[in-house]
Amino acid sequence: MDDVIPDLHNLAPIYLFLLIAGGQVGLPIIAFTYVFSKRISRCSTIINYCVTWIIYSVVYSLYFYGGGRKASQQLCVVQASLIQGAPPMAVVASLSVVISTWSTFHWQDHDHPFIDRIPRPLWFFMILAPPYIVLFMFSLAFGLFNIGKGLARPTNGLYCSIWLEPDSMIKLLVPSFCAAIMIVIVFFEIAITVQYYRRWNKIKRAFPLVDRKSSTTLVFRIGLFCLYSWASLSAVVFFL
Question: Which segments cross the bilayer (predicted)?
């Protein structure tokens, strides 16, 4: 076993503050604003993205919600299994966002009679359900793997995880999956950037006398999301 793990229990207040303030207070406010505000266009993938990160923060808080060091072994097993599914869920939700954005640009430039015939409920299921399916599959797989082995235990005093041998190939499953999805996300981001640039040039050529400026807020949001993607990809490569 990898026993050289620092005890970070003294950082629990900061750890919980970040999880609760960001994931369980801030993100619900953003999600409810998207849902109920009449001044903001409702983007289902963005709302879904917020929901997945709310779930992510709750998953990483379960150990303390269950009493911290007094938490039951059953709760520890549940959290350890869910923690294996939470990162894949979040990264697949990010993929849904970029696919939705890419399709918005792409469909406006091309005719897709087959895609147009997809029922709207089915399309919403195809774009919104995958994060939760991935969460269920990874959590179930690691939960079944842990049965009878007693591998779930508190890690560094902040949460429970499944302890594996340092050379276990199973440890690579989650970061490998996340890295593969992040690479796909980066390719879609490049495609979105190219499409946006082409459309912007087309508009300028069609209306040369009109003074048009690109949206600063849009560029900022796209840049921020790309920065998050590259940082996440670097993180999962580091774990690999």
Answer: 12-34, 46-65, 85-102, 122-145, 172-197, 218-239
